[in-house]
């Protein structure tokens, strides 16, 4: 039975690869060099808005790449397999990267990345207060920071849009921007990220097909910047001994949080005396599918040992 299943999977993988080869004329993502004077944040923004994403070659140097790998390894070693099935059991993950890696802190403040995120995600409003008009500017904040080690045998993720977490009606500009940086060489064979170029322009009713996706191969230190409304997925690692290692930083609009900071006003040691209903009103729960998790767990479980019909299993 195992042999038959493996044969079917290999045949399907071959079919998809052939379809991708036939789609050479379809939209691609441009590759621009970080050290090219023409690579400004204005150019990056232009390409993200046109194609959905862009590859920045040489975004960080080899020393920076090695430092991040060394700092994240203990977190990868401590990870447990994903029970939800979204991540293959052969994938190891790290979260909260800015708390465990100074190299990731430096990456998060990379000027090209920050300037691009600010240009795409900054929000402005000009409300009236009586007959006086105010002007407020809200800059983006980190939505999530993740590291991944994708081992041999890892299956392909489903193609998805990251901003589906925020329940946005399609047609609006995305509220998110992502950046994946390769820590090891990533190829189509070892599971390079799949992207469907220009899928950020699609309507809500159009589903992505695997043959529409391209594998974005990266050298260590290269970065892929893409909108939260672009269909993408981690590829399948078809190698026998290669581990693909990447880090991902994701920004969201700065107003996408409560008006009041409830976690400071009612910290966990006080909130644990309240009912699960009140704890969730304060924002300790998860907004499905995944907004508000902690180490891929529902904080209600971690902080208050709450397991009920509203608990989100990740």
From TrEMBL:
Cofactor: Fe cation
InterPro entries according to UniProt: Phytyl_CoA_dOase-like
GO MF term list: dioxygenase activity; metal ion binding
Gene3D superfamilies, per database record: q2cbj1_9rhob like domain
Keyword Transferase part of the UniProt annotation: no
Coiled coil: none
Keywords recorded for this protein, A-Z: Dioxygenase, Iron, Metal-binding, Oxidoreductase
Keyword tRNA processing attached: no
Assembly and interaction partners: Homodimer.
Family to which this protein belongs: Belongs to the PhyH family.
UniProt-recorded name of the protein: Uncharacterized protein
Organism of this sequence: Cyphellophora attinorum
